[in-house]
Design brief:
alpha/beta; 44% helix; 7 strands; seven-stranded mixed beta sheet; single chain; 14 helices; 294 residues
Length: 294
Amino acid sequence: MEQTWTHIPIMAQQIADLLLLNPSGVYMDGTLGLGGHTKFFLSRLNSQAHIFGFDKDPQALQMAMTRVADERLTACHASYSQAPQVLASHNVQGVDGALFDLGLSSYQLDDPSRGFSLLREGPLDMRFDTTQTLNAAAIVNTWGMEELERIFRDYGEERRAAQVAQAILTARRTQAIQTTTQLKQVVESALGPKRGRIHPATQIFQALRIACNQEFAHVEQIASVIEHVLKPGARAAVLTFHSLEDRLVKNQFKALAATGAWKLVNKHALAPSYEEIRQNHRARSAKLRVIERI
């Protein structure tokens, strides 16, 4: 299973070139995951540097600490939205750079027990932080028609959100929907079987994951976080994987730049190289935006 969870950090070289301006600096990895970006960054930084890695997933934190195995990393079980308070508790006045990788870790997708993927039978969970109460099964089995339709439409960009919500309400009257396979079958009953490359349930699973983990609420706080933690001259890089997140980040960066205290390092989102996408298909939808505090 360890081999299945090999983690390839996306756009690591480009991000390091844009972000690591001070080789002795203190940096923040807002989404540590399995530590791929952090490990690469530490290989580029000197012995005085330090990285604070944040993740809501306790399992990811343990694996990251094992994989990175470097005393220059402090792993924090917290959301990046809590970074100002956590860094202050470590007497860190400001950081020289911050990365926010908003993608799922490969191991989360590939581990059936986490319930993120419709390709594998597993419990309908989808929590990043397994200590939180709300999971995807609770949303599917207890939320009302309007709430379900809203998240499928707004978070999954599903045009037939009402049909899916109605199918879920009908199915759960007979039996609770507890597994990924059950949900996949319910969505197929509403939208039809797979046609082409993308399964009809893909957007529904995405919407549930976003709602379960309040992902957009956290993304909307990135501007506030970097205002609190970045030193003058420091940069923040955000890696997104779908248009909704990218739009939120783009608008936040635009608003910061309009104040005159920040500048966009790249006016348009950067994308991975053709070669990187060829080697790692999960990089294909990545977009990178970087901003600097003046």
